[in-house]
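Still learning. Show one?

>
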Amino acid sequence: MIEDPSAVAPRDAKELARTLLVRLADLEEGTTAYSYVRGTLVELNLSLVRYAAGRFRSGSEPMDDILQVGTVGLIKAIDRFDPDRGLEFSTFALPTIIGEIKRHFRDTTWAVHVPRRMQELRLSLVKAQDELEQRLDRAATVAELAERMEVSPEDVVESMTATNAHTAGSLEMRLADDSPDSRLAARLGYEDNRISRVDDLESLKPLIAALPERDRLVLSLRFVGELTQSEIGERLGVSQMQVSRLLSRTLAGLRAELTHED
């Protein structure tokens, strides 16, 4: 039994891992021996995870999370490895680990929903940008990127836009100075419900103008003068109940006219 697999020298770890992989293939899954050998293989090969994770180092994603995802890829590689094929385990495991990390970035680190096709295209875009920049000694144009990636220029532009979906800025972030108006939220448009009221009022004008004079007067006293129904009744010499019925009938008629126009 190996007390501390992490203390095994790299060359010895490689030979030991090869032996344990052959041993694991002969063990029954779920047994104590299988779990021990599998766990030891994980610890012996964590250097592969650290190497792969270093390629994805970024300020937006904690390295601990990347290492954890990479370890999941390592476990999958151990479970899928076939010693009889004659491959080096590291040659087989690295693509599996890297693929798992890429899937993590593609599926879980986007600030907003982006179609999977665009997420995958973005990875190709980054690779194409690096290759063309080194070859051309300048930033590649959209047309050059489209030709290199074998996609349309529109797809390249959309992929570039999708890149911005990895991060989201706070609405309280300052854009220029420290004044209150420099906040992003203060510069964003919003839905103004009063605009729809303007349309309604314009539509109501001819309908109100067509009402009998008494109905127009009651509406004016109620909604412009803001009198109560009792006050309107006193002014017109009728009961509050009559005013209520008149208002209800008039408003129902106006509502029906507006609905009919829509």
